[in-house]
Amino acid sequence: MARLDVTETFHSFMFPGHMHTQDSLNYATNFKFQDTDTVIVTYPKSGTTWMQEIITLVLNKGNPTVAQTTPNWARAPWLEQCYATDILKASTGPRIITTHLPYHLLAPALQHSKAKVIYVARNPKDVSVSYYHFHKMANFLPDPGTFSDFLIDFLKGAVHYGSWFDHVKGWTSNKKDIQNFLYITYEEMCQDIQGSIQKVSHFLQCPLTEDELILSQKHCSFNSMKENAMVNYTLIPQEIMDHSKGKFMRNGKIGDWKNVFTEEQSRLADDVYSSQMADSSLLFKWE
Ligand code: PPS
User: Fold this and answer.
1) What EC designation does it have (predicted)?
2) Is the pTM of this model over 0.90?
3) How far is the CA of 127 from the centre of ligand 1 (A)?
4) Counting CB atoms within 10 angstroms of each CB, which of 48, 72, 125, 229 has the fewest?
């Protein structure tokens, strides 16, 4: 498989070369957003796929047909990935666009845009565990080594897509510069999925009836998405994602880090969090 082991570096950020090129990254950072666009922004493993499913269901009034027949990367493509250009050019209706890019790389393109931006954040301890497991199955990411090694790189930001701290702070501290911005956390979605779907539907100005809300909730549950080949990545060939090494829809809970971190690793992560997030008022649920 071409470029599977290649890392593409762009503005000092590492991206999997398998899906990113200088051209695709330049295309993303110079993208012409439309006011009708909805943009999902996340650091990897923070609830991207879940939000893609929620938005698809909200826009389809709870009808799961699109969610069950079109792969998530085709209905909500990652702006910075090579294949996005063709999908976005061919798209006619309001577009759902996904990105993992940090704020400073996308800010110029988003300036003056009325596109609706939804930022999903997840506590970094759970992100690190989810990302570690994802590295084991995704052959386009480097071998993560032991969790201990990976955690050190993650806390330093020496991983693909850069630092979790910079990503979250970059997007949330500049939210006043984005005309339509919704911040939501993975933990909030876990704890109150109905309220979260309603929040998204209000933000998208796409109100749902009680029945539509219940249908949306049903089809974006972890168990439903786990069985949905359009989002569980089982359509991706084994040489790109090795499902014998793990599942994309893996655990889906808050606080799995407690099963993985040692006390020392937890203290280290807390220390880095305290120093990196000292200037941030964000609060996360950790368990
Ligand atoms: S990626 O690769 O960046 O697109 O990954 P992303 O979709 O952001 O994150 C994957 C994690 O989200 C979990 N997930 C869910 N949790 C609860 N409910 C639902 N419906 C759901 N859908 C996805 C998925 O299981 C990954 O988390 P972990 O902790 O690894 O299970």
Assistant:
1) 2.8.2.-
2) yes
3) 9
4) 229
The alpha carbon of residue 74 and the mean position of all alpha carbons in its chain are separated, in whole angstroms, by 15
Q: What per-residue string of b and e applies to 73-105 under the rule 16 or more CB within 10 Å gives b? A: bebbbbbbbbebbebbeebeeebbbbbbbbbeb
Is the minimum distance from the CB of 49 to ligand 1 under 6 angstroms? Answer: yes
DSSP assignments along 125-156, one per residue: HHHHHHHHHHHHHBTTS----SHHHHHHHHHH
Where do the domains of the chain lie? 32-276
At residue 5 the predicted structure's pLDDT band, cuts being 50, 70 and 90, is: confident
Identify the residue whose C-alpha is closest to ligand 1 atom 17. Answer: 252
Q: What's the pLDDT tens digit per position in 200-223?
A: 999 999 999 999 999 999 999 999
The span from the CA of 145 to the CA of 119, in Å, is 30
CA gap 65, 285 in Å, rounded: 33
Q: How far is CA 59 from CA 101, 116, 212, in A?
A: 24, 14, 10
- For residue 183, how far is the Cα from the chain centroid? 13
CA neighbours closer than 13 Å in the CB half-sphere of residue 170: 17
Write out the two tokens for 160: 């693909």
Q: Which amino acid is at 52?
A: Q
Beta strands in the chain (DSSP E): 7-10, 13-16, 38-42, 96-99, 116-121, 180-185
Distance of CA 74 to CAs 56, 90, 104, 134, 247, Å?
A: 12, 11, 26, 21, 20
Residue type, 114: K
Q: Between 3.30.830.10, 3.30.70.3270, 3.50.30.20, 3.40.50.300, what CATH number should domain 32-276 receive?
A: 3.40.50.300
Ligand 1 centroid–CA 51 distance in Å is 9
